[in-house]
Amino acid sequence: MDSAEPSTIFVTGATGYIGGRLAPRLVERGYRVRCLVRSAAKLRARPWAGQERVEVVQGDASDEHPLVAAMTGCAAAYYLVHSMDATGAGYRGRDLSLAETFGRAAARAGVPRIIYLGGLGETGQGLSEHLSSRREVEVALERGGVPVTVLRAAMIIGSGSASFEILRYLVERLPIMITPRWVSTESQPIAVRDVLFYLMAALQTPATVGKTIDIGGPDVWSYARVMREMASALGLRRRLVIPVPVLTPRLSSLWIHLVTPLHSSIARPLAEGLKNRVVCRNDEALRLMPHQCLTIREAMDAALAKIKAGEIETAWSDAGVMPGDPSWAGGTVFVDRREVATRADPTAVWSAVTALGGEHGYYAVDWLWRLRGIMDRLGGGPGLRRGRRSAEDLRLGDALDFWRVTAIRPPQHLELTAEMKLPGVATLTFDVEPPPANPGQTRLIMTARFRPRGLLGIAYWYAVLPLHGIVFRGMLKGLVRTAERSPAPAT
């Protein structure tokens, strides 16, 4: 990196989909990166976060005074915050407030410029609430007085992106798709690697300061054509797409909720935005930052290859809020503790535990887990389709089906906190320990805890308690069986 270039870059959203990929690439380019996150422990679980040039600042983007202190001394700031998560409601007002706070803080901290990734689309009247919110954020950031570079992108095609997951699941599961009229709307998707190129190139291109730049791949296609191309990339038969006028964004989002891993509160703003044509209005991006973007098919093939290889760097679910550690004191807490001994090595037991969920399943009575997942989806929860980022690796903050990894200390302790719809707070922990009295055996302890909310929570616990004997006993047996089949470690 040239010595005249900025040394410290401020990054928000570093535990999210784009920020989690951008930050390590900035480090690779030689920058020092200062990341603002709500959970420092969650970010430090990322393999790149322990590098010398990474500084982790725990805080909230809504708190202006600490934000000013955190941004002081930075040569640029990336604003990659988006509050449209599983809570959904009220995201537009919150996003506007956060952007206003960030713009003021950047000015007070003396940050020379802000780089923001927004949404591509038409201007003027008729924008969806989602795209209107993206425009409001642009204006709010600029209001602080710091020059803002706005990069506007449409659908991002990449392993783990929300748009790509919707597309993939719909095409995989539905040979005949009854769709709203927006299926004929034109879009200009872009590969995630090209988005990252432009985000970094903008930092090194002075001519982009204060500009709004549309970025997109070389193809402009209707959503129907994109769906058919996805079927081809997946090796599936051509999908029949039938547009009908009666499907509203609300109905579409509920259908997406049931068929794909995304929550309806995320799906609805995205579905509403599909009515707007999202195509680059000029070639300014290519003029200022020359680059050959991947075609739609190349981007799909690259994303699917990453998924097949289990190399998903970040996923849309990464941005989920870390559940706070429940305060078990002062209230009713139900505990179901089970323990088993095995001759397997502790490392093999730990490997079996951390393989839970996703495509692998839960070692026993998977049909019951699938039924619980379906019930959760129907009730508005994430269900099992969210899966897991990697089939082998788990880190703090990862989503795992309808769980979230809230504590992990390899190779001894794993805590999962339930994000399914429940009348209470539930955790499932696994502890692997070799008992000192019998060094030839390993103990695996599994503990389910549930803190109910009101009488409904108490009734729920006693209703599911008989199933624990089937589900948890079977899971423990399966874990032990898998661990004992693993080859003994080399001595």
Structural notes for this entry:
- With 491 residues, the protein is an alpha/beta fold.
- It has two domains: 8-318, Rossmann fold, CATH 3.40.50; 322-485, Alpha-D-Glucose-1,6-Bisphosphate, Chain A, domain 4.
- It contains 15 helices and 19 strands.
- It has helices at residues 19-28, 40-44, 64-71, 91-109, 129-143, 162-173, 192-203, 223-233, 249-259, 264-273, 284-288, 296-309, 346-353, 366-378, 454-485, and strands at 8-12, 32-37, 54-58, 76-79, 114-119, 148-153, 156-157, 176-179, 186-187, 190-191, 212-214, 221-222, 240-243, 334-342, 399-400, 403-409, 413-418, 424-433, 442-452.
- The protein has a seven-stranded parallel β-sheet with strand order 3-2-1-4-5-6-11, sandwiched between helices. A six-stranded antiparallel β-sheet has the order 14-19-18-17-16-15. A two-stranded parallel sheet has the order 7-10.
- Strand 15 and strand 16 form a beta hairpin.
- Helix 4 (91-109) packs parallel to helix 5 and helix 13 (346-353) packs across helix 15.
- Residues 324-331 have low confidence and may be disordered.
